[in-house]
Amino acid sequence: MKLKLPNWGSLCNPNLLMNSDYRSGIINQKGQTSYTKGSEDWGKMYSIDMWALQRGVQLNMNDGNISVKCTNSSEPGYLLQKLDYVGKATAAINIQSIIGEVSLETAYGEYELLKKGLNIITYDFGFEQSQGWFSMRISEGATVVIDYMKLEKGSYFTGMPVWNNSEELTKCMACFRILDLSFTGGLSNGKYMPRQRFLFENIMRKIPSVNHVSTQTLYNCTAEIEYVDRFGITLKSIPTNKNDDWAILGYRVELDAYDYD
Questions:
Q1: Are the C-beta atoms of 116 and 80 separated by less than 8 Å?
Q2: Helix (H, G, I), strand (E, B), or coil: what is residue 8?
Q3: pLDDT the model gives residue 190
Q4: In this predicted model, which residue has the larger pLDDT, 105 or 7?
Q5: Which of 3, 39, 158, 219 lies at a 20 to 30 A Cα distance from 200?
Q6: pLDDT tens for residues 15-35?
């Protein structure tokens, strides 16, 4: 008689972090191979999905890991993810290699140094401690290569959950997505302006900002975003041909509902 062993990955506590097991995959909707945030201000820049860079940091994607380097010569840079959780939490960060000083913020202005291998750190997480940010500080000239990271409720590390790429992407798309919009509509003496409502596959966390990335096709019209909310986006074409004809439109936009505060 053969015994059926349980799926031990399913017994792990959920990971509060998103897009953080790089051994299995990296959600990277923007499609760049690296991201660099300058040190000119304290603004945050979105990089691979759900992760923000601050204050002179370069993130590179590798096969099975990410590398993060501080490019600032006078002060540290930061790798960040915003979370809603408040309470006792345990971080597990598996580091393949490390050069220089890299640390995890465990309270406002307090950091615990990280080392090569598996780092397990239990601390109180929340707005008072870190303004809701899971924050890794990379000191001047330091570089860290990360295999995976987890933050879970409670005082123990219970292992990494099984990676599900489609579920992870769906969660990430609530905060950021790139959308290709296209439609064809008829023009009557150049007076009819076709509109199309595109519904999102899942609701976004808040009303997103919209950045026009590129235009693939414009025929007999120009285009503009007429309306956007958490549920979808409405695109309007403006005729450039005064005759009866067709308007054909292809438009790519970035929708950003990430919380940078």
A1: no
A2: helix
A3: 55
A4: 105
A5: 219
A6: 999 999 999 999 999 999 999
Least confident of 56-65, 149-158, 173-182: 173-182
* DSSP H stretches of helix in 119-173: 127-130, 165-172
Residue in the block written with tokens 């790139």: 178
Spatial strand order of the sheet with 34-37 comes to 34-37, 57-62, 65-70, 143-153, 87-99, 117-125
Residue 45 and residue 35 in contact, taking contact as beta carbons nearer than 8 Å:
yes
pLDDT in tens, 118-131: 999 999 997 565 67
Angle of CA points 14, 150, 111, to nearest 5°: 135
Query: Max alpha carbon distance in the chain (Å)?
Result: 78
Look up residue 208 and give its DSSP letter: P
Beta strand ranges found along 154-244 (DSSP E): 176-187, 195-199, 209-219, 221-228, 232-239
Give first-to-last CA distance, the chain, whole Å: 57
Residue 157 identity: F
pTM metric for this prediction: 0.87
The Cα–Cα gap between 73 and 140 comes to: 5
Residue position matching structure tokens 């120009």: 222
φ/ψ of residue 149, rounded to 5: -140, 145
